[in-house]
Design goal:
136 residues, alpha+beta, HIT family, subunit A, binds zinc ion
Length: 136
């Protein structure tokens, strides 16, 4: 079930612009507009639920299956040293898994991330990154 006022539910319904890279029955994936590194993707369940541990098992497994596949694609296309995951959700109250291409351990513990001062790529750069992930 989707929520009419939720920004990520609006992304799923196509009411809010996103740079989509993947969609199936359980999940929707799109480029983070403020990436830690190029190739940073958000994967969300097609159900409005603020906390991942409250998703039903089928939705959770569908979500994490997509996360696994997309992580492998991001490793291949962006060639980071590691691919990391973050599930926090302080900003938007709809479960979202950050898939982060990591070149350094501190990519997910950096001061700039903690302070919300991440990169601000252009729409062209986001489109290019989305196309790299979709065109495996
Ligand atoms: Zn939602």
């Amino acid at each position: 079930m989707l929520d009419k006022d939720c920004k990520f539910c609006q992304v799923i319904r196509g009411e809010e612009k996103s740079f989509k890279v993947f969609e199936n029955d359980f999940s929707f994936a799109f480029m983070d507009k403020h990436p830690i590194n190029p190739g940073h993707v958000l994967v969300i369940p097609k159900s409005h639920e603020p906390d991942f541990y409250n998703l039903d098992n089928e939705m959770y497994q569908g979500l994490m299956g997509a996360v696994k596949e997309l992580s492998a694609t991001i490793k291949e296309k962006f060639n980071p040293k590691k691919v990391g995951l973050i599930v926090a959700g302080f900003d938007v109250p709809h479960t979202h898994v950050h898939i982060v291409p990591m070149h350094d351990y501190h990519d997910i513990t950096s001061k700039s991330l903690m302070e919300g001062k991440r990169a601000n790529p252009s729409e062209e750069e986001l489109t290019e990154a989305a196309n790299m992930i979709m065109n495996l």
